[in-house]
Design goal:
219 residues; 11 helices; two-stranded antiparallel sheet; mainly alpha; DNA-binding
DNA sequence: GCCGTTACGGTTGAC
DNA sequence: TTGTCAACCGTAACG
């Protein structure tokens, strides 16, 4: 997970890291300039970001109200679907001492899975460990804290980002709310950005971007 | 010249 | 621990 020391340079002279999203500060600046009535082609030149990218970010913003990139990486569960997890949880609740291989047999016997999508014992163990956890503790918690929401373990998506440039280094510091669940970017943004979607409101973090623009001259 | 779209090469992270 | 795979990224080019 090493970030390159320097990004690449595009045709406009702007620095970017291939495969990685632009810093939030630049994404925000794109939306801000667009809201001020500046044409996308001018934004592209000013920020030295390809017009395709500007177009994409603005289109996404108009559609979702979010400037954040989507969730990169990961893969959809192939065998550990929500249905399977639900059944495993049920088996475990009914019989806390049940073994993974017994769960596996029951998934097959109950027709939850067939032999082609039956999770391995190790997969079931991982589900028990990661997605279900200690059910006895959980039950105690739930019985004593009825209606209390479970803790949100997932870090904010943007927490993962860091950039090699001075712009990006600050851009990644754009704060996300504590305990923000691992939602797709636009979902998360509804918690970050006011529902009005106005740049003025968005610039609740303006000081950050202004600091950046001092070290980032626009032509 | 502007803008929407898309192929491409790249990164990421759950599995 | 390692490899796979499908998601996303921004750029460049095309129409």
């Amino acid at each position: 997970m090493m970030e390159p020391a320097f990004g690449e340079v595009n045709q406009l002279g702007g620095v970017f890291v291939n495969g990685r999203p632009l810093p939030n500060a630049i994404r925000l600046r794109i939306v801000e300039l667009a809201q001020l009535g500046i044409r996308p082609c001018d934004i592209s030149r000013q920020l030295r970001v390809s017009h395709g990218c500007v177009s994409k970010i603005l289109a996404r913003y108009n559609e979702t109200g979010s400037i954040l990139p989507g969730a990169i990486g990961g893969s959809k569960p192939r065998v550990t679907t929500p249905t399977v997890v639900k059944h495993i949880r049920t088996y475990k609740q009914r019989d806390p001492g049940i073994f993974a291989w017994e769960i596996r047999d029951r998934l097959l016997a109950d027709g939850v899975c067939d032999k082609f999508n039956l999770p391995s014992v190790s997969s079931i163990s991982r589900i028990l460990r990661n997605k279900i956890g200690n059910l006895s503790q959980q039950n105690q918690y739930e019985s004593s804290k009825q209606g209390h929401p479970p803790p949100q373990p997932t870090l904010p998506y943007n927490h993962l980002y860091s950039y090699p440039t001075s712009i990006g280094a600050a851009g990644t510091k754009v704060p996300a709310p504590q305990g923000m669940p691992g939602l797709p970017g636009h979902m998360a943004m509804h918690r970050i950005w006011p529902s009005s979607h106005s740049v003025t409101d968005i610039l609740g973090i303006r000081s950050i971007t202004e600091q950046q623009s001092k070290s980032y001259s626009f032509d």
